[in-house]
């Protein structure tokens, strides 16, 4: 049995005593000035903004069907994530208007065009509200439910922000003979999207409550079986989003704190400072009375590092303790280091310009969560990613973007939650100087990530095909889309897999610790494929309980994956292997471009 931390986090956070030093960068980076001057051309870069619009246009035009309100090739949980990316992009569109106006850019014409785009994609989110397969998700894993929660919380966040700030053109728009049209009455109407806030919030609350029953302290002292701690921290409806219609029930924040407290004390991080995928309980499948998490699964996935970031940022919003922000920045820096990027030098640690790629197919060495400064999944290089795996990098980028959003002091009318006293949390005095200082250091730290982010966005953009569809393996873009036949996979070029099970991409092994003794003795498990997602026949989904594939089932699955990819596998495009280009890989490309734009336009 695998006890998954990331569902606990979507409940979670224990904080250390607050320090008065708010620097979120290592000492060597504090002394140096960021060397990202070349990235300054991205400040409100129109080309980059257009590329974001192109990415979402392709995602929706190629994969979304408005008349059924969903992406037919997606499965339930990845569809929920796609909705989250749409909500995030809507926030970016809204922010573009605010930034343009604040910098004195005339937005009368731009407002109309942007409003039209916002209305288009918001209407598709409404369609997805009705097209979402909520009855099926109720019977699925707890983490599937929590992705639903996160998606609608992000949508509510967009609606709340867009409706509460002036989103109309400047005064004088449409003025004729001194008379304005539209009239003030029309212009002052509340944005229509607020009509959907109660419905979106209700769905988030229902699925949070369904997932919350999976929280269990009898095993491992906490966590969720086959579930996600990190998502439990991030998806607390009503605790951190300060909409007036929320009851502000403190139980959500208490649940987040409990889950986070369990997570950071669970020994879930490896030597790289990254969160592994979960724990096994030795002897559990054979009826042992052991309840301790004593067999850690060392598998690393990018999304596990991402979902926690939103939880930490939201916990800081509820309890302004700098330790949440410090832990989040440390995790981001660990991820960047594990891609093979040196923040001090603002460049890859490997000499990627002198690789013997053509003659020997030499790849940059694996660094823990990527290579050559590019974020990767273990499955990327060989083109073996499942539908789950193809979704993960986009999740990381989305939550990274949310974490690095500017810190804004709470408004005076923001409600205060009455929480039980916690001796583990020391609250600093919340003075204006506190907010100014911590916002400044947070901004400085996030700006140090721009060089790495630009490096990844450029690589990802170069994996696009002639239709504008992003590939899964971003590193291929950095390597000029090296021919598949030229690739050589030496032992130091792939992730070490000793003691590691990539069950998200390869399926659940038929061994004790993963399945019960009864299942082992049944002898029928080998006939079931690991993760066959057949869109034409009831969308079979087995991301949490699927079996390791037999040779027969592997051929069947590979055939189905090739059918669902955007094109046949070709030698000069490594991203046509396996599942090829999909709606999930497109969402990853959208997420990395959006992350770059959002961080680039921030001003101190």
From TrEMBL:
<protein>
    <submittedName>
        <fullName>WGS project CABT00000000 data, contig 2.12</fullName>
    </submittedName>
</protein>
<dbReference type="InterPro" id="IPR053169">
    <property type="entry name" value="MUG_Protein"/>
</dbReference>
<dbReference type="Pfam" id="PF03663">
    <property type="entry name" value="Glyco_hydro_76"/>
</dbReference>
<dbReference type="GO" id="GO:0005975">
    <property type="term" value="P:carbohydrate metabolic process"/>
</dbReference>
<feature type="compositionally biased region" description="Basic residues">
    <location>
        <begin position="545"/>
        <end position="554"/>
    </location>
</feature>
<feature type="compositionally biased region" description="Basic and acidic residues">
    <location>
        <begin position="555"/>
        <end position="566"/>
    </location>
</feature>
<dbReference type="InterPro" id="IPR005198">
    <property type="entry name" value="Glyco_hydro_76"/>
</dbReference>
<feature type="region of interest" description="Disordered">
    <location>
        <begin position="534"/>
        <end position="585"/>
    </location>
</feature>
<dbReference type="InterPro" id="IPR008928">
    <property type="entry name" value="6-hairpin_glycosidase_sf"/>
</dbReference>
